[in-house]
Amino acid sequence: RQRAIHKCCPSAPQGWKFNVASVPVAAYQEPPMWAALWLVAAAAGQQCSPVVKVERRNPLDPGTGYAWPDIYAGTWLQPAKRFMKFEPRKIGNIEGAVHAHVYGGVNGLQPTPALTRDFFDFSVEHFSYLTKMAPGKQGQDTFLGNITSRLDGYTHRHTFSHQYLERSIGIVPFGGVPSSKHWQALSSQMLRAVVMSMTDALSRVIVATCDEAHAMRAREALQGLERVVVHNLNLEKCQLPYLPRATQATLKRCLIQRARRERHVYRNEICESWLQGEDYAYVMYNDADLVLHARCIRSLGKAMDEDPTLIILPHKLQTFAKDDDPLPELGVAPSVRDLTHDVDSASCCDSGTYPALKHLDQGSFDGCQNFWYNCPRMLALYDFARFSEGTYTPLLLGNEHGRKCLLSEAREACDVPHRRLTVQRQYLVPLLAFGPNNQFEGLLEALTVAKLVGRTLLLPRYFDPHYRDTRSQKKKFGDVFDERTLREFTSVEFVDEDVIKLWKTSPKILASPLNKERLSKALHNVGFDQAPRKKAFVRSHSRAADVAQAFKGFSAAGAVFVALAPLFVVDGEQDLLREAARYRVRSERVRTLAATLRGALFPGDEKVLCAHVRREAETLGCVPGRRYVVCPTPQGTVPTATH
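Below the sequence we write its predicted structure tokens.
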């Protein structure tokens, strides 16, 4: 071949040799015999990483396996028998084409989603997101043209081994292409790259369209490819999710008819075209914007044979590019590593960590538009690489939800991540307001909630006097309660300089509605001067299980601090409150003063019962069986027969 540099990438390394203009497309469709034999030998000498099952947990919860957000990639691979049990009517949106196959069941996930430990063993490059970076009208044609050229170069220079999984079939819905000629050219080239990558892994690929116009475009784009069928489903509606749903439903009917050896006249022609009279053991679904890497497809087939409940999801690798200078507006171009081979020759082992999710500011995506990887400061936590023998498009080395992988330029075995997913210490900030007694009751409930949800309670440095009391001063915490006994119950601490720095830079959520003045005072008493901007309120009079579930959502959002006004939040949980009350002991100073007062009022050794009697409106929670030992009776008296 002549040495040439592709027109889209003038910064390509000198080792990149191809000349699109001078070599016919057909010459690239099959590798030379010696190359194919070398690939077989190389594959035999490489060990594929095991599949790791997905757990129904949030990403920042402890664990080494994959978390449920890791599963979405717009693609799945599963045994045909498992697929034939699926009901396509469950697909309600584009994500449902995958989610409906994995969500549900007793534990929230159907048996059994899994991903490979080495990201590059089974992954997809996501090109639709790349198109969202396209500029407006000015410069858009050039931008789209460069992506088209990258994909065209991939289809010509990539060495396809065709070591596909026997008795496997893939389906790809293709529709909704914009009318612009540049978008149409990109969509056609993208489809060709996607389908070629699938034929490298599967024995047959079906491209389903909603109308004849898309079918004609698909046939033109896929001209010359073997083991590929384009079929027009003639749908009345071409929008999502109708096409993915119809595509999966059609294949399901055909597989069932084939398994039962049934002959339905109106379906026979379609099924014969799709299946060609063959029996299939494995099914893959893929979107038309996802270039597949499946070097371990045969190993995945063996895994599904051993566990027929498996549904294997690829890792979704995000693509980033801006003409010839990747990511200049995001400021991470220096981190892009240029490699002279393709993804299939490298490894990217699971790190078990989600760096971005631990650094989200204010518990939201603030300036990140619609997702975390629109933020330069988030992207700076990750590495990027582009492969000259691949699509030559910068790839973020992590999945869509920020789980990071560790790049190795040579293929290697991936061990279990050495570190468990560590959870940064998380805090509960009590917003103690109103009079002293409400603040003391709030402390009791804050202790209960902190222990319930596993967060460290930040103790107030001061208690305010009653808001109508203009003469009294604030009381120091140590003058009122014994800090030592609280530590025996749960994790507590006072705010120091390190916590203040963490407060200023970490995600935080306001979980209770308070007016600005009371919120400011409560935060100031703890040691903070900046209120959280993100709000997600916890309902009052909640059961403990509901409060715990709400805090799991806060942890999933990466909230290091949750500020809560702990009055009447946990209700009806008397055992929890009583347990906390045993450790909410008054300070030694208060106990000494109480003993002196008792001796003056009640001399002698007789035991004395002291009760704090207060007025309480029923709307504030003074209902028998809730949190107070005694409540007013309809006659306005307080019974003495109580416990």
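The mean pLDDT is 80.
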